[in-house]
Amino acid sequence: MSASAQKAKGWLVGIAVLCGIWLIQNGPGG
């Protein structure tokens, strides 16, 4: 896996985590 691919994957994971936290706080479960 290239460094750029790892960086892109890291960004996607980070964004997914942030979206998940936001949904938990602001979604129907909050």
UniProtKB/TrEMBL annotation:
Query: Where do transmembrane segments lie in this chain?
Result: 7-24
Q: Is Membrane set as a keyword in this record? A: yes
Give the keywords, sorted: Membrane, Transmembrane, Transmembrane helix
Tell me the domain of life.
Bacteria
Q: Please report the name of this protein according to its UniProt entry.
A: Class F sortase
